[in-house]
# Entry
Amino acid sequence: MKPYVSQPIMITAEVVGASFSRADLILEGVDHSTHSLSLRIFFNNPDANATTPKTADGYVGELFVLGHGGCFGAAGHCDTEATPRLPFDLRPPHQLLPAKIWMLVTEGLKTALKAGQLVVSVVPVFTHDPAPDEMLHLESVSIVTYA
Amino acid sequence: MGTSPRTRKSVANLSEADTTLLRSAFTASYQLADDRGYEYHAGIHGLPLPVYCVHHDATGLDDNVYVGPLFLPWHRAYLYFFELSLASLTPGVTLPWWDWTTPVGQVPVVPAAYSGAGNPLAAGPINGIPSDQWAKERQSILEGTKVDPGDQPADTFRQPGQLEPVQDGSLPTPDDVSAVLDAPNFVDFTQRVERIHDNIHVWVGGTMSEIPVAAYDPLFWAHHCMIDRLWWLWQLKHPGANPPDQYLDQPLPPFPSLKIRDTLDVNNLGYEYALAEIALQPVAPVGAG
# Structure
């Protein structure tokens, strides 16, 4: 599966908050309905891919996602949007709704700040890649800083 | 007098007698096909449907959805009921925890107590899954691992550290765990510890990397005891830092007798995590020998 690569943005102390002590990278819409995988995060290394070692420039860390392995019911069983939720619906949400996950990237952002630019790469790594030609889909990628 | 808490020990500190007892308990559980046995308990987590386990739920909470941060409480309840079932079959047995932390530069390994041919802790039987569901899961395992587990009863298997193409999978370091224990609130902690939890499932690989059958691997329970222990250590470090109040009365299906608030104190569930056990012998009586 091909990595997600963000468009470059200019970052300054004003943009990230001059005195931030913590920065989180937040990924929304992470699919966990099929195979387990690792999402390796690189800053300012837009060419990073599944063969890029974790010692390479810009490696920030790794987020693991344990997968559900597919759908085991009849047709529609795992269609997360098949039935709109009605008022007074106290049932739990569908287990396969895409996840929101995050990781601390404080030191990585401080390093990127010195460069003045940030490109975020999210590189999927599987035991056996089920779809090598597909792009990794994420609903959003963002960074939040805290004082 | 039966009121002291059960002690969960580190896998690394199991005596020969402890290991023998644990293997006997799992063997007895494998042989029971009713709702006291392994097939039933492993099946609660994944297949057969419904899948009860809770993952990836810590955030993205929709105001209109009845959901909370269930990952840690649900698995604590799960371990509790499975441990009691083992102890009913083999009195005195408790679940051990696998400290999978591995310093940088050290090669990560599956513990010896859970390895080796003929060892009931090296693999568990997958059985009792309806044929249509097993056909789909069998195909998923084949796609994800390149190993066909075959017909039921099938054995679990592992592929430690074999993330392709570079096969550089690693386990969390002690520093990674220390950082997780510094998480300032429950939602942050559960998010961070679940990512570490997923790391171990993916590193072990094989059937452990597939939610529908992960709990059929005996190593699953030792891994989850470590996660549960980390939650307990974090609780001791952050007294009163519970899940948000609005979730405390949420039930934990299929465990009707427990809500989230019932899982907050391991002492209320009758167990504790031991760091070490030191056996002492009496002084030899005068004239003995």
